[in-house]
Amino acid sequence: MPNVLLIDDDAHTRGTLRTILENLSCDVTEAEDGAIGTSKMESRDFDLVVTDIFMPNQDGIETIRKIRRAKNDVCIVAISGKTNRSELNYLKMAERIGANYTFAKPVYSEQLANILDNLAETATARART
């Protein structure tokens, strides 16, 4: 069962994504902002981090930077509900600094299922070596 850290300041979005991830057999831990999320990473290993970009206290860009400095092997998905061109550039920036995947909201079950499938295949390949 993959351990997923879900970081988003919007409770409705967290609830929706939590339901999707739990339906995909994930163990989900929630955080309301990046500072809380990076703090939770200090006491638990996660297979996947899903983080919003625009949040108070610590945004997703800083969160990704901190995660990459501390734990380079975790898979990171950056998401954003902002869809204008300049704000979509933040998703590109997230990718450049270490996000493995980026999606504009809404995030769909199929997108997360594909990522989890990729993680499972990578884990299986590592176990064989």
Compute the number of helices: 5
Distance between the termini: 21 Å
Shape summary: globular
Instruction: Please list the strands of the largest sheet in the order they lie side by side.
Output: 2-1-3-4-5
Number of strands: 5
Q: How much β-strand is present in the residues?
A: 15-25%
Q: SSE string, helix = H, strand = E?
A: EHEHEHEHEH
For the sheet with most strands, the description reads: 5 strands, parallel
- Label the structural class: alpha/beta
Q: What is the mean predicted local confidence, pLDDT?
A: 92
Residue ranges: pLDDT <50 for 5 or more in a row? none
Task: Compute the CA-based radius of gyration.
Answer: 14 Å
Question: Helicity, in percent?
Answer: 40-55%
What features would you describe in this structure?
The protein starts with a strand and ends with a helix. It contains 5 helices and 5 strands. Helix 2 (34-41) runs parallel beside helix 3 (60-70) and helix 3 packs parallel to helix 4 (85-97). By secondary structure, the chain is α/β, with parallel strands linked by helices. Helices cover 50% and strands 19% of the residues. Helix 1 links the parallel strand 1 and strand 2. The radius of gyration is 14 Å and the shape is globular. Strands 2-1-3-4-5 form a 5-stranded parallel beta sheet, with helices on both faces.
Topology readout:
Elements: E1 3-7, H1 11-23, E2 27-31, H2 34-41, E3 48-52, H3 60-70, E4 75-80, H4 85-97, E5 101-104, H5 109-128
Structure, briefly:
This protein is α/β, with parallel strands linked by helices and about 130 residues long. It is about 50% helix and about 20% strand.
